[in-house]
Amino acid sequence: MNVELTLNGEAVSWESEPHEFLTELLRRHGLIGTKRGCESGDCGACAVLLDGEEVPSCLVLAAQAHGHEVTTIEGLGSWERPHPIQEAFVDGTAVQCGYCTPGMVIAAKAYLDRKGGGPLSEREARELLAGHVCRCTGYVKPIAAVLRAAEALGDPRSAGEEERA
Amino acid sequence: MSQDWDTGRGSMGEYDRFRVVNRSRRRVDALKLALGKGTYTDDIAHTIDGLLHLKVLWSPHAHARIVSIDTSEAERVPGVVLILHHGNVPRVPYTTAGQGHPEPSPYDAYVFPRKVRYVGDRVACVAAESELAAARAVAKIKVEYEVLEPVFDPRRALEPGAPLVHDEEEATGICGYDKSRNLVCEMKVEHGDVDDAFARADVVLEREYEVPYQAQCPLEPHCALTWFDEDRRLVVRVATQVPFHSRRILARILGLPLHRIRVIKPRIGGGFGSKQEILLEDLPALVTLRTGRPARLFYTRQEELRSARTRHPQLLRWKTGANRDGTLVAQELEVLANTGAYGAHALTVQSCTAGKTLPLYVAEAYRFLMKTVYTNLPIAGAFRGYGGPQGFFAMECHMDEVASLLGMDPAEFRSKNLIGPGSENPLAKALGEGKEGPPQRIRSCEIQQCIARGKEAIGWERRGTFPQRGPLRRGIGMAALMHGSGIPGVDMASASIKLNDDGSFNLLVGATDIGTGSDTILSQIAAEALGVPLEKIVIYSSDTDITPFDKGAYASSTTYISGMSVKKACDKVVEQLKDAAWEMWQHAGDPCERSSLRHEDEHVRRPDGKALSYAEICLSTFYEHDQHQIMDHASHMSFECPPPFAAHFAEVEVDTETGGVKLLKYVAAVDCGVPIHPENCEGQNEGGAMTMMGYALSEDFVFDGGGALLNDTFRHYKQFTSLDMPPFETILCLSYEPSGPFGAKSVSEIPTDGPGPAIANAIADALGIRFRKLPITPEDIRRAWRERTEPAASAS
């Protein structure tokens, strides 16, 4: 079967088996920023945006993405222009082994987009990361990074978010 | 204390001169990882043509002899290429423990055992064209088992007539391994006249404690890829903390000359000790050797929880003798540990349970008695903390209990008895790495400062002032801690460094960054030593073909041991740079004093202001005059093992109606010497402590009656999440460790020692009830609270 989707803004058409999950489809095509951590939807390492909503791609059949928009970590920022959320994780030493980081960044992106600006509370930052298992950081610095990113994105002086996204 | 013993205090002024270390620079790998471009072991699988996928058949029984294996049906599954089991793989006894040679762990494991010893033991492995085909074939393998009586209780395992977990002839052991019992190893260590000291003590207290299994839970599961390179050498790309030990142990079990194997450590998604194990790379390696094809094995989370490694559960008995003035007189610790089905790290973890804890407090006499036994349960092994968290839970709960008996403030009681700068460690010799260890004497030590600042941050003076009514009860608890920095006299690391024509340097290290930040830390040390910005260091770590040897990422050794090898190599390169600059000036007819040259800001400078940049020196030595490559290497091994020190404080609110414990605040004050990267040290502290908050309150293995793990998913194995993590404060209490690189000691393991006892002590303070078994669950609290408040109800 063929799965057609908009991946990071570009139309793709990929062969897939009916039993294949989205994680595998993406990884087979070199989108390795989407990680396999539990394959049961419990760890968040495989998070992607499906039509702007955060989903664990290990629980989404590839076929379910047919006709939809998928954004992976690769679609968020680049070496030259990292997304402000990515910048905040880097500058805040919130990245340790880094295996959970793409999922956390995706979660923050989904939440902040949905919220559409305004100050973010610490409680909200904790809640948006709650589905993301991290055994390295103790969450202290990721929570701070999300708060800092929200501040940067809410600040009109940090322009360019629209064209980046 | 002798005057000439350098405790580092005289070197503190060096702080002001640091340019790169003791600064929180951007981690060298962080942007790559945040962009999702970090390439972990499995992230190249999609680029490998003809890759075979492996799936393992695991034992459904806790204890059974394999009578026969019938693979005929499985072989007929389309896509199946090879099925491995004990009938077609040579039986070589070895240990999966990734330790130095000779490993102080028994050789009791086989690639495929003939007798399975726990639910999750290896039975067979299928290699197929797809993961699905391999899984289908695994389901079609027919195994006939002779089911044997299992043993699950470590006390029962020692009784005469208990089922024998290991009874084969081939196994060889260390430290009293005895095939007629389930005893893996045993230790008896005494210092001073213990019985006499207890007899003289004003008070003697003896209590028993218990700690559970705990899973490391690296977010990246164990995985490995293997293939033949164009010279038909075996390449092993594996999620490991110990690439050099992996190569050595693989050569042994595969029967392959070591030089025919290359082990590559790519980006690693956490290890926490579980990847200090030669856990799975032998299987794809065997498949590649037999088929000539690349092979891949990637554990599921369930496999990871059932069949990887865990923290040793222990029963501990602690006995303390003290005088009424609060002076400790004697300490005795007895440990009965459960290593599960195999004895990886059995001796050394348990010896650290005493070695990290007992010397923290000065006493006249010490005794340590230890037995580690086999059972038919999951395998224990290395786990961040390495025996420390078990021992500190018992000791630091016990210290609170002794203080209470003496009517003393627990912090004051500890302060009175702690070791300090210049103290000898009386047990270091007896508790070496499977052999006698080098003597140890403390240099840098700021534990009193850790306690003082921690008390202030948590509001210690509020302890004992909380209202003793209503359903919600508050309490504050603490723990004092120490750990180590490497294994003295054993751990060796090396580094090499070369100059490039733009004045940058390639730094090659055997050290293994598994998420710890060591690529950044070691680059910072190199940049500081060479006088260049961090960006001028290009680091490549741990590839057995390319980088020099390093013992691996364990035992809190990377900053202290590997870091010193980097510093030594850089110091040698600085001398070469000065030699070359001197020679260039000499050659140009503008001579100077060699001894007057200094290096800073990427230049070799003369007192008269003239300078040559590293780039100019490199270009000259490459292409013009006295042509040679400026490069050097160095190794480091230390007979010293400077402990980092810490004091942890927890404030809790216990709901006596639900038994729930809410952590209101956690403070971890740590003396890790000079923090090379302060924010990274905070991160280590926060993450290490969080892991152990789960140990204190929520993480445990739940088995069914047959020894099968029931909570084998992240949904049912309850780790702390971002919602559970309390407000957290790290306090870095600076000291200068004279034997470490730029004054540094280790920081990674010590935070794991504190939360168990600090939280248990806070709960005891809140409720007046002492819990001596982890995890402290709501059920435990409700039961104990009801027994206290409604004695009649609990009696009926």
Summarize the structure.
The complex is a heterodimer of chains A (165) and B (796). By secondary structure, chain A is α+β, with helices and mostly antiparallel strands.
Any overview of this molecule?
The complex is a heterodimer of chains A (165) and B (796). By secondary structure, chain A is an alpha+beta fold. Chain A has 2 domains: 2-75, Ubiquitin-like (UB roll) (Roll); 84-164, [2Fe-2S]-binding domain (DNA polymerase, domain 1, Orthogonal Bundle), CATH 1.10.150. Helix content of chain A is 34%, strand content 14%. Chain A has 6 helices and 5 strands. Chain A has helices spanning 22-28, 84-91, 101-115, 122-128, 140-154, 161-164; strands at 2-7, 10-15, 47-50, 53-56, 69-71. Chain A has a 5-stranded mixed sheet, with helices on one face. In chain A, a hairpin with a 2-residue loop joins strand 3 (47-50) and strand 4. In chain A, helix 2 (84-91) crosses helix 5. The radius of gyration of chain A is 15 Å and the shape is globular. Chain B has 796 residues and is an alpha+beta fold. Chain B folds into 3 domains: 41-148 and 217-307, Aldehyde oxidase/xanthine dehydrogenase, a/b hammerhead (Aldehyde Oxidoreductase, domain 3, Alpha-Beta Complex), CATH 3.90.1170.50; 310-487 and 640-792, Aldehyde Oxidoreductase, domain 4; 492-637, Aldehyde oxidase/xanthine dehydrogenase, molybdopterin binding domain (Aldehyde Oxidoreductase, domain 4, 2-Layer Sandwich), CATH 3.30.365.10. In chain B, 27% of the residues lie in helices and 23% in strands. Chain B contains 19 helices and 30 strands. In chain B, helix 9 (346-355) links the parallel strand 16 and strand 17. In chain B, helix 14 (558-587) packs across helix 15 (614-623). Classes of the chains: A alpha+beta (165), B alpha+beta (796). At the A-B interface, helix 2, helix 3, helix 4 and helix 5 of A face helix 1 and helix 16 of B.
